[in-house]
Description:
The complex is a heterodimer. Chain A has helices at residues 3-15, 31-39, 45-51, 69-87, 92-109, 113-129, and strands spanning 22-24, 63-65, 135-141, 147-153, 157-161, 164-168, 172-176, 186-187, 200-202, 207-214, 217-219, 221-225, 233-239, 244-248, 252-255, 261-270, 276-288. By secondary structure, chain A is α+β, with helices and mostly antiparallel strands. Chain B has one domain (24-138). Chain B contains 1 helix and 11 strands.
Amino acid sequence: MSRALAAALAFLATATATTPGETLVRPGESLAEVAARTLGSEGAAAELLAFNHLEGTPAAGTRLLLPGPERARAVAAIGSARSAVVQAPPGSARTEAESRLAEAESLLAHARYAEAAAEADGAWKLLADSREPRSRFAVAVEPDGRTRVRVHEGVPVRVEAQGHSRTVRAGETLAVIRGEPPGEPTIESGPGGRSEPPVLVSPEPGLKLALEPAPGGLGPVRFTWKPVPEAAGYVVELVGPRSQTLRTAQPGITVPGLPQGRYRWSVRAVQGDGELGPAATRMVQLVPGRIKLEVKEAPWQ
Amino acid sequence: MALCLPLLVCAPACRRDAGAPPPVAPRQPVRATLARVKGAVSVKRAAGDEWRAATEGTTLYDDDKLRTGSGGSAELRFPSGTVVAVSEDTLLGIAETQAAPGRPQADVTVLRGAVDATLDRPANQSLTVGTPAATVRAGREIVFQ
Lengths: 301, 145
């Protein structure tokens, strides 16, 4: 029997002795390959070293400990936070959340899983809590000197020119010719204009929904709205006892169960270019009840 | 010795890289910081005549100017949290702001091009955008007709 075969057999004999929470470095296997085999990513090589308090590449036959469910929790929290950051509008909340997300990723790379999960949760919560009505508007100076003001969403803005003042509200556009007072705002929905917010259908505004116990709390809860022309999909945000962001291609979504309490739910259309349109928002309260209230489907469905 | 002192004083300025944004007078309050800089974006200081390439984290002060070229874009992040996204082919200036204590305010003057402004806490923020034709006021203390 050759020496190489003996070594391989010896390795196999040892490998069979590993427990689920550990692994052996195989002959010829790089650390990146071990990380890919055990943690699903070659990029987790440094994390594997940190978790085992090792420096440098471990030799074949080295027994490595593998992280348990605490890593899965951290990875899931970072995934949720990353998704929330991608969907978040510009603003101080997103900036801070991006910073906390980067810190969470760094902590994960150092195998500090509990801290990474806490940091990622913090980033996610920051965005969930910051969803108060915001103000977004555009100002363009056109080549002929004309100023065009368009309010996408939120509180109105005031446009002043030549001693006159006009209020421009969400969805309105106002053009001002240089040297002239502002004219009347117009509602613009043609090409280049952003879509209107979806028209929410159910649950109705301020409704108290009595629901039966379901996995995750009470349910099911169905949210519906009218389709937005040319929308590629919709983003639904629930802010309440269990906040979450959901995506759907249909003008409605069913959540199997939610903890009881008050929720603010909002819907945005995803435009063809991937941008999110303005949000429509409502409140609903979920309470436990023996009588289940059925939410009727709208006729357009 | 008398000749050495001026040389020592000017040394930091003389060492700066040609592509770096020019220095500013000390103790000026930072009005905005640049983020998400893409493509051709340059800054001209209030006291300077030269346009210099801007980078992430470049700070802007009163009367500084920002210019984006074709395909260029950037975000102006104000201390109040207000974010102004600057589109391509835009020229704007940071206006002097006389804000009351505890009332964060941001002022910009758009001379050419387009900006998209976001106030995520409009009850506590205000932004004024001036143009050659009009003044746009958003946020707190707006009195509506």
